[in-house]
Amino acid sequence: MAVKLEFKADIMDEQGVKRALRRVAHEIIENNRGVEGLTLVGIQRRGVVLAKMLQDLIEEVEGVKLPMGVLDITFYRDDLSILTEHPVVNTTDLPFQVHGAKIIMVDDVLFSGRTARAAMDAICDLGRPALIQLAVMVDRGHRELPIRADYVGKNLPTSKNEMVGVNVPEIDGQLSIVLYEKKKGE
Q1: I need a labelling partner for 70 at 20 to 30 A (CA). Which of 46, 101, 143, 183 fits?
Q2: Which residues are registered as beta bridge partners of 180?
Q3: Cis amide linkage into residue 45, ω under 30° from 0
Q4: pLDDT for the residue 184
């Protein structure tokens, strides 16, 4: 039986997402007492776009372009065997030394915590960072692991029958956040 997504609500338009990202950028700067030694790591796919937006916003405020990397967690997922027989592997590129780095991981939605755990495992396989912090656009609850975000654009309590869509221009043609309801199809 296929699951169909049915549009339920607009959560944030482009301006709302931009305001939330600007706030997150300022929180990152404030909580780290500046940007010295900070790096950004976007989790494939939408996390990469959001990390780039944060990189631009932080540069606008601090005058410093933070090093940014791209992380694919495909082979670190604990559900890989049940997801697909032929996983799509994207690029991992961390153009800085992980050992001793202060890493801000960036993702679109925090749900069970399993993606964040997989990302931490992938990063730690490349070295021992000084710290890892997590920035997400949406925290929708329903954690299965003891993981929390340090920076959240929007807290959005959801039911397990709902799905949050963070749309980014490079992938979806627009910048917004929407809520879908899962419907059982034929």
Answers
A1: 143
A2: 7, 163
A3: yes
A4: 83
C-alpha 40/C-alpha 27 separation (Å) is 14
> Where are the chain's structural domains?
3-184
- Using H for helix, E for strand and C for coil, what is the string for the chain? CCEEEEEEEEEECHHHHHHHHHHHHHHHHHHCCCCCCEEEEEECCHHHHHHHHHHHHHHHHHCCCCCEEEECCHHHCCCHHHHCCCCCCCCCECCCCCCCCEEEEEEEEECCCHHHHHHHHHHHCCCCCCEEEEEEEEECCCCCCCCCCCEEEEECCCCCCEEEEEECHHHHCCCEEEEEEEEECC
Q: Give every residue of the chain whose pLDDT is below 70, as ranges.
A: 1, 77-90, 185-186
**d(C-alpha 117, C-alpha 59), whole Å:** 28
Does residue 107 contact residue 116 with C-beta atoms inside 8 Å? yes
- Phi, psi at 49, each rounded to 5°: -65, -45
CATH fold of 3-184 reads: Rossmann fold (3.40.50)
* β 151-155/131-139 pair status: parallel
Sheet containing 38-43: which strands, arranged edge to edge? Answer: 68-71, 38-43, 102-110, 131-139, 151-155
How far is 162 from 174, CA to CA, in rounded Å?
Answer: 21
